[in-house]
Design goal:
Structural class: alpha/beta
Helix content: 25-40%
Number of strands: 20
Shape: globular
Largest sheet: 9 strands, mixed
Distance between the termini: 27 Å
Strand order of the largest sheet: 7-8-6-9-10-11-12-13-14
Radius of gyration: 23 Å
Amino acid sequence: MRIEIKDKKYFIKLFNTLFPNNTIKDINGITIDSRKVQKGDIFIALKGENHDGHKYIKTIYNKAQICISQKQMNKKNIINFSETNNEFISYLSSKWREHSNAEIFGITGSNGKTTTKDLIYHIFQKKFKCSKSIGNHNNSIGLPLSFLRTKISDEYSILELGASKPGEIKKLCKIFKPQYGLITNISNAHIKNFASLREILKTKLAIYESLPSNGVAFINNDSKYMQKLKLKCNQVTYGFKNTSNYNGIVNNDILTINKKHKIQIPRHLNHLTELILSTFAISHHFKINIHDYQEAINSFQLPDGRGKINKYKESNVIDDSYNANPKSLKLGLERFIKLNANNKKKIIIIGDMLELGKDSIDEHSKIGIFISKTNFDHVLTYGEKSRFITENISNKKINSEHFNKFKNLKKTFDEIIDKDDWVYIKGSRSMKLDRLFKT
């Protein structure tokens, strides 16, 4: 990963204050990947389980102006940092946060973090000076590094906070001190690294618990985990089922909020009504008028692999293949059930859901049982674990088939799709299901 420093003047001033024995006169970027080092960069050598960046310092020594080393090295342009270099990134980012004028909007959750972050930024940028974290770089290395590319003068910074282990959200909140927070939802994503769903919930709730008394927690009131929270900050609730500050009803692609605000849901987002309601609640709180909000969602383009609709052989492919867990898959299937296909076929393609640990077989089996209650035309599964989905589809009206080889999956997929059919693709990233319509 490499980031370019945008606010060069302020960064140089801060860096020279923190490290007076290794001052810099210019700055290009910061990188943790020796292959991406450019002249004038700062290179941070990280030591991981499989790779040690320190062994590349000699290779890029004359190219990078400063190298950060955890190992003691007596050279002019090397800063020896006593703690891990992960901590160096956090330290530098926390100092940047202290000087930033931006109010921080932190977003976490089991699913939908990146899309929500991107949409909020897309809405905010027309009214405010703002920035956002890069892609899905949301962990204790990627997020602090990403934040260093923001500008001191930003009014808001929209950050995605991820957690692959207990306590990670709390650690990130200590660095960024958010004033606003949103948990999109809670599920057993990455449960392999957690003792229980309760531990995932505790980890995610840290974002609300870290907000100041004058901060605002935006809360999905339809989630059983988010109801009746005791927080010191202000709360703004939204939902379709339970009484909230922002209650939504959807009818014929029109979202009506509190019986007075009407939003036309764009065709390419009609499977994301919960996302539309949450971002409307946020936008309304920040006094963004409805006309500007409608324009913003109309022009918003979903990131690849996160529900973007693609054309393939005149069919419509909803590419949700970036990642998958039981909650996000079931949610995607529920959305697909509601989609009006105009009497054309609905085809589901599912790859393995990973990082489920001992619950893997059971969770895949439950998806098969859920699909049995639907009227999908075809269900194709691919991978080692997803066969348990196919094995548990009892509805004989659904044409279901499992594949161990991608080429066979591809061949069958191309044979069954027709013009204007609708296809929903979902699986963990390593399954690379987007190859189905990109090749």
